[in-house]
Amino acid sequence: MESSAVTGCVHSFQSLGAVDGPGLRYVVFFQGCPLRCVYCHNPDTWAFAGGQQVTVGEVLEKVRRCAPYIKKNGGVTLTGGEPLAQSDFAAALLAALQGEGFHTALDTSGAAGLESAAKVLKHTDLVLADLKFTTEEGYRRYTGGSLARTLEFLDLCRTMGRSVWLRHVVVPGLNDGPAAAARLAELAKGYDNVEKVELLPFRTLCAEKYDALGVPFPLKDTPPAGKEQLAPFYAALGPLAAPAK
Q: Quick one: angle between helices 227-237 and 178-189, nearest 10?
């Protein structure tokens, strides 16, 4: 099968995104995710059923229309959902994009087998790695995933020489405080390919999506994160810390 005919399931597209990598980005939201993070802002991307089936060629056509705006300083970002859950489609799409001179970024939790991740990373310029929690207990309790698997993915990124921006949502009462900040800083500083850590304060703007889906939002009574919760992270991370755009 020609790479342009490889199909995948996509939730939606954003033509000119400004928060998922450097510059203006064309953002492709994949359908389906193996995790169930309690603070997820995109619960409508969880199910692997649904979405729209598209080919690599069809996505390329959409991206090309935005080339004048994104090609010089921006690029294309795959997010979700979880792009690594559709590794064949993600790899084929990124390879085609690189072939046409687009900068490529992968926004991922790393929740996939290393073989699947490697074939996608082969065509990835920048990894936006979502580090959910800094303890195995927190990961399993609040995401259903594993910190160990994410660390294996980060090790693979380092081995393959891929630049990484870590992303970390700070949630009051779940992963905030000086001890959590120190663990995050120690982890981030252990990777020489981590260029920065984007600190994302928890917000409840996604509550309406949960209501629309008829799904309880686990953190509906959790207050938003403010400067008080973020301060220990900025102190521990120093120059690596970067506020979200």
A: 40
Residue 33, both tokens: 């995710």
User: 82 — alpha (psi -120 to 50), left (phi > 0) or beta?
Assistant: beta
Segment holding 107, helix H or strand E? strand 104-108
pLDDT tens digits, one per residue of 87-121: 999 999 999 999 999 999 999 999 989 999 999 99
Strand partners, 81: none
Phi, psi at 183, each rounded to 5°: -65, -40
Exposed, middle or buried, 180 (CB in 10 Å: 0-12/13-18/19+)? buried
Name every residue whose Cβ is closer than 8 Å to that of residue 244 and which is 6 or more positions away in sequence. 19, 167, 198, 199, 200, 201
Residue 33: is it exposed, middle or buried by C-beta count within 10 angstroms (0-12/13-18/19+)? buried
